[in-house]
């Protein structure tokens, strides 16, 4: 499991350029006109993790298999999308299918790339998209309420449970606040997910800047970061143009190129790290002479669920998990050293997987 993240934003903010750079493909056409992306393009991207390389070296693994995530490049949205303007209906349908929203905002000047609003203002642009998404959610919920109220009056417990979630969310949407801003207790979160609301999805704002602002940001990114902080969202600064250059370079030249720009890592790495935090994901590993493999599960996942990320039979027949922490594995020179030092643990069904765990599952089918 990785995560599925939809790249959204107004036309001509750099969505497709970023998608192409992140997936190192030319699958999405990056052109200077609205709606150049008609159908959502999808690309799976390997998650870079230096820990995987380290344990592979120690175990002398013949193959390295990183975990991955999926990016979906979704058609640009314009004002009125909630009413079907532009490609609004397609946009809204595609965005409902992703787990998180990666909202690209134009934070660079330049008359060579047109802007649908006629000027550069990323906070305004974010609010334009947010408004359309909230209107779509508002319409969706208002259509459901009459039937649910009728069922609730008849004593339907499921309808009452749904209304208990819908009512505060509707209140927030009518005030111009997204569904994710409503502080619902944990027991109501499952009901909220069933509603499939767009504005309930976590958001990562991506400030697309020019090359000169990639390391330190600019006045536009300061405003976006402040907006994200106020919402409890995340924001990263990235130059889609730089990322497009990096993927064209040989691996051996990338570090020097980044250093020349005052950067220590790619924008992809920052997006992944922010995305993992956004969705509450963690990585565990399996390792041996044949391969070192990274896997992703949600924080709070227990050992059988981690086993199921590898194969459903592993979860069904789960017996135990031999587990070594990443730091111990590296410090003690691998599995045998960890065993000898008493750092290999045999964990049962109730063990909560920790980020970086190296696991070997015992199972019986």
Notes on the structure:
The chain has 365 residues and is an alpha/beta fold. 42% of the residues lie in helices and 19% in strands. It has helices spanning 15-23, 50-59, 88-95, 122-153, 157-174, 186-194, 219-231, 240-246, 251-260, 267-279, 303-310, 312-316, 326-331, 335-340; strands spanning 4-8, 41-46, 63-65, 68-73, 100-106, 203-208, 234-238, 281-287, 291-298, 318-324, 345-347, 358-363. The strands form three sheets. Strands 2-4-1-5-6-7 form a six-stranded mixed beta sheet, sandwiched between helices. Helix 1 (15-23) runs parallel beside helix 8 (240-246). The longest helix is centred in the middle third of the chain and has 32 residues, at 122-153. Residues 25-38 and 84-88 have low confidence and may be disordered.
Secondary-structure blueprint:
Layout: E1 4-8, H1 15-23, E2 41-46, H2 50-59, E3 63-65, E4 68-73, H3 88-95, E5 100-106, H4 122-153, H5 157-174, H6 186-194, E6 203-208, H7 219-231, E7 234-238, H8 240-246, H9 251-260, H10 267-279, E8 281-287, E9 291-298, H11 303-310, H12 312-316, E10 318-324, H13 326-331, H14 335-340, E11 345-347, E12 358-363
Parallel strand pairs: 1-4, 1-5, 3-9, 5-6, 6-7
Antiparallel strand pairs: 2-4, 8-9, 10-11, 10-12
Helix pairs in contact: 1-8, 4-5
